[in-house]
Amino acid sequence: MKVDPARAATWRLLSLVIVFQDDALWVGPLAARLRPMLESLRRQWRIELVLVDDGSQDATAHRLRERFVGLPAQVHHLRHSRRLGIGAAQRTGMSIASGDVVCLMDGALTWSPEQMLRLIGILTTSGCDVVTGSPEHPLLGARAGQLAGHVGRLLSPARIYSHHCCFRAYRGEWARRSLEVDDGELGLPQHLVELARAGATILECPLEPPPRRHGRTLQRLARNLRLLGTLARAAWPPALEAFVGTRSPRLLNRWVLVERHSVRGGY
User: Fold this and answer.
1) Cα distance between residue 60 and residue 20, in whole Å
2) Is the model's pLDDT at 245 over the cut of 60?
């Protein structure tokens, strides 16, 4: 379905929400990478940057104010007094993002910022409501994590392979929709699931996954198990309750602890 040209012509403001947590080392490289991208976008858009510092304990806040100056965009600085989680940081940023298109990414250069241009292009030409990066997409070939992606796609109302990727583009009205989601990493997939239940059309853009970082394997395993458990409980609650009983929440909470303590810094 093509977008009505009259509607596309009204898309004038683009918001880029970037969430940080102890990412001081990445602030300078990220600002340098964003500059040419923003220069390209400003030919068609007015741009605002919404920078959300999720209670960083390092010099992230200082470096954000030092490095994000002179960019072709209006810049908003937001900071949590303590770490609340990426789900909470996403909500904080999107609550003030006023763009017709709202993009979301993390501040640790997990994904190449330039790839956001692909997501924006899909969003503005396809007629969908949300585009998310998809490192588990089958078009990328066989790789670890795709089994969880296939199972998640079967269980999820969003019918997508990747739910956790913090690299997305939304139509503004869907980005700002108030939803009850988890404050932590589970908030990212929950947000897509709840939008799909509300009627949003969600597409995926295959993205090559980033290089592995030390200590992340256990975190990814825990994250995928938590997601599949959540999707399964939502899809078939009576059958699952009979199968796992009241121990399921306790088991999932153990995985939460494993995930939180397996690695620090970044999303």
Assistant:
1) 8
2) no
